[in-house]
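Please go through the protein record below and see whether the fold suits the sequence. Record follows.
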Amino acid sequence: MPVSVAERYDQLRHRLTSEPRTWLITGVAGFIGSALLESLLGLEQTVVGLDNFSTGHQANLDDVADRSGLLVKNFRMMRGDIRNQDACREACAGVDYVLHQAALGSVPRSIDDPLTSAHVNVDGSLNVLLAARDAGVKRVVYASSSSVYGDSRSLPQSEESTGRPLSPYAATKVADELFAEVFQRTYELEVVGLRYFNVFGRRQDPGGPYAAVIPRWISNLIRGEPCRIFGDGETSRDFCYVDNAVQANLLAAADAPSGSTGQAYNIACGESTSLIQLFHLLRAGLSAYKPAVRSAEPVFEDFRPGDVQRSLADITRAAAKLGYEPTHRVREGMTATIEWYARAAGLGTPSTSATA
């Protein structure tokens, strides 16, 4: 009888617990990096973390320890920058798998400062690949982005049909994929790219001018501040809960066959949610914790340059070659995310009488 996706993932987790490995997570203090750390420590793996804390936070690492009650005896934190070759070499020493999450995200940030985005996302990734090659790392899994689809109008978006990049950030992710593929062909370093589609979840930073939409709107609703929608509200995204991204990373690193490497895969839910639908989901969920949120209404502003209007992933290839299948759909992930932020804000337990 064929093994189901859930069984395959469970078998991988059991195998890792029985045969621990050493992992490097770059960007470990970010919200995806810290979710990976939480999962790997729970599987009794040895983890090296590398972060310069430019966008990551010590509070994320503290929350991993508080949330899971894990002892961090198997975790070594390195404060360092992926733009520094020596830091990358030190971090990769003795490592089996690299989960490369460090990057400067945000399309608007890259438009404001394309040079720094290129230095971090391209030069930094190249340093990680070089260090992994020289250290004899078994496999590098790196974070790419749905932004590589650019102006492609094909929906759902499949891995073969990328368009022209619409921002410097998107261009850096295209470059990362090209370098990774070249490293596999030239140096036989196994690489797998994960094209994240709007990952969200616990510990995502709501602050700063480049915050992602979900944590920013949750924070605004809790504080009674307006939520801005750029455009008419029909701009849509394929939102993906962070635990789905964790699953994809572990499968890609330690389970996927060698024939599946040297490629990039869509990591998403295969669902399209418009911004106005997202607002209503968040408002309904948070009203259970703070009834005053029910009266909130969004504020509409002009479209932003560089924004993709539609995103919807075809996850067929990731399912077939990596064994990936989302464990959390958008509503399930949103419920868990709202619960985390409500608890962090001290809002207490939800009211069963709350309505949308």
About this structure: The chain is about 45% helix and 15% strand. The CA atoms of residues 283 and 313 lie 25 Å apart.
